[in-house]
Amino acid sequence: MIVTDRVRVLQLYRRILKIGKSWEALEPAQTNYERAGILLEARLSFRENKELSDAREISKLIIRAEQRIELAQHYGIPYKRPEYLPPDTAFNVKLSAKKFQQLSRLRKTAQ
After folding, report:
1. 108 within some domain
2. GO CC annotations (predicted)?
3. Which structural domain range is residue 40 located in?
4. Does residue 77 belong to any structural domain of this protein?
5. Interaxial angle between packed helices 5-22 and 55-75, expressed in degrees from 0 to 180 and rounded to the nearest 10
6. Where is pLDDT greater, at 70 or 2?
7. Would residue 23 count as lying in a domain?
């Protein structure tokens, strides 16, 4: 049975809404902020792409969204992870140069 793109998109949207409503942040104080961010981003992304009719483009977007869901659940971060940074680089963290050097040394000694 072939599932149409429309059904896949609706299933994906429902899945994202469920995740957004039940999301637990790594820092409990950030839970409501992250939940609101997930729901807002989903709403805006789906509205932005609602006029697409190219099946290939729709499939690509669905695959990207599913990958992003898996990464978010695995790492516990709902934000899009930059792909241009090395894997051991801090993401969206403001550290002083001294603190960053200390953390770098700790990572090197742990390896």
Report:
1. no
2. mitochondrion
3. 5-83
4. yes
5. 20
6. 70
7. yes
